[in-house]
Amino acid sequence: MQTLLLSMLAGCGKMAIDGTVSDVSGEPIVGARVTLIGTQCQTVTDAEGRFELPCLPGVYTLTIGADSYLAQDIEQFDASERKRYDVGTRNLIKLPTDKGLLKFVDNAYEPLARGWIERRKGGSGTDQWKIYCLPEDEAERAEIPVNTFAAGNQPFFDNDSGGWRAWKLDEEGCAYRMAPDTKSSWEMTYGEKPEMQEQRLEDGKSIVVLALEPGAYFVADWGTGFFKSATENERKAYWGHHLVVQ
Fold first, then answer.
1. Residue 56 CA to its chain's centroid (Å)
2. CATH architecture of 2-94
């Protein structure tokens, strides 16, 4: 059968790409879309998650996607000969419904534990100041949840945020400081900020990659989460995620 198909492909000047699509537990995904970007070559998986995609030979980006799953791309896939190409089993990750910054653990995304920093202020006029730090009280600091990671590039899934900002905490546990440089403008100063890359997906989702050195960090959803009060007492405190990188 394979020899016959190869002969048919060679006769019509085509090649074929085949494989299987499943979720991370190994269950086949029926109806997953398989497409060669920039062509009209596309197909869907059958009841066993299998697909067969014939097209003209070439070098392509092969994308595999399904509703409610994170799409997977195979870039620069060399299918330049008239023959069959087997890409094996491709496992798609279920898109989470939780909002916020999520990490991939045990074949699923789960949200980071939420913590907070507090705003302290003082002075007046052009001598005013505001600092955004961990609580001064050590007992209160110990109550704030911490997310622990290894150093290096750490990818997170962002399910509909207003844009993340990350700061490395200084020796006093502060993310940043503000003071007026004029009567109407405030200047922000901060320590090291980790390098951040963001790959935008559909529907407001994205993959956020933080390059983290050992230390403590505070990551906040600047547009939709940070400025919501994290506590019900009189002091100003703001939501975010504490990362400890070892």
1. 34
2. Sandwich (2.60)
